[in-house]
Amino acid sequence: MPIPVIDFSKLNGEERATTMVQIAKGCEEWGFFQLVNHGISVDLLERVKKVSTECYKIEREEEFFKNSTPVKRLKELIDKKSGEKLENIDWEDVFLISDDYEWPQKTQGFRETMMEYRSELKKLTEKVMEVMDENLGIPKGYIKKVLNGGEGEKAFFGTKVSHYPACPHPEMVTGLRAHTDAGGVILLFQDDEVDGLEILKDGKWIDVQPIANSIVINTGDQIEVLSNGRYKSVWHRVNAKSNGTRRSIASFYNPSYNATIAPAPELIEKENETVNHLCYPKFVFGDYMSIYTEQKFLPKEPRFQAVRAV
Ligand code: OGA
Ligand code: NI
């Protein structure tokens, strides 16, 4: 069963109501869905692919295979011939960009293209968040406002450029170990050809099927709290592959570190939940991140419990 594919352009026409329902289902039942006709031009997406791949080839690949920890540890394990799998490490090359990070220097056009992409993607994220507001029955702009700590533009919009290099022993290591995302709303532009991303749905791992130029949306732990459990953050992982290098560019709209996160008042069933403590906790996002950093690859429920106690 493939994850839902939704035509975002239909939000502006006669099929608006149906599209709103599709997105609501994507959020409630799947936690992951793909948008096509999302308004980001194919020309820009093609340029993003080009500069990302070039950057990996020019500035990262050699270093990965010469000096990276996963490569060294995999070699050791192969030499040992013990049949063990590599634990506690991911088979990935990754770097983060945001407006204030250091940018890769040697790839022509990287910075300009990614600045343009990030600005377009941030606008798309805000549109998606407004759809979520409407579907949840909370005021328009509510999610954005909370993630920005109440006002202004304080949320953190980051972009993670990942490559999962072709792996000689994909059965011995994971590309990215299973986790739920910590933050708000995540928009992923994944490789057209090399697959590997899977989500856990009803106890089974299923593929996030590559569709050229689509954008995959998923929600993080903070949206689960804010929606009081209506939109659950979903476990996902990336398998290592031997047939090629997989590119994936994840942009995330996360709360500012001092934003207060709590279930939206409209979504709390007062009698049942506040009294019985079934409700999600209220906390400051920075405190959550201190816990997440230590526990990223573990279940989220203990993180919610730990942050409730801070
Ligand atoms: C992540 C993530 C998936 C991918 O960065 O949190 O899940 O396909 N990435 O790279
Ligand atoms: Ni993730």
UniProtKB/TrEMBL annotation:
It is an enzyme of class 1 (oxidoreductase). Its EC number is 1.14.17.4. Keywords: Coiled coil, Ethylene biosynthesis, Iron, Metal-binding, Oxidoreductase, Vitamin C. The keyword DNA repair does not apply. Residues 107-134 form a coiled coil. Residues 155-255 form the Fe2OG dioxygenase domain. GO terms for molecular function: 1-aminocyclopropane-1-carboxylate oxidase activity; 2-oxoglutarate-dependent dioxygenase activity; L-ascorbic acid binding; metal ion binding. The keyword Oxidoreductase applies. It comes from the Eukaryota. This is aminocyclopropanecarboxylate oxidase.
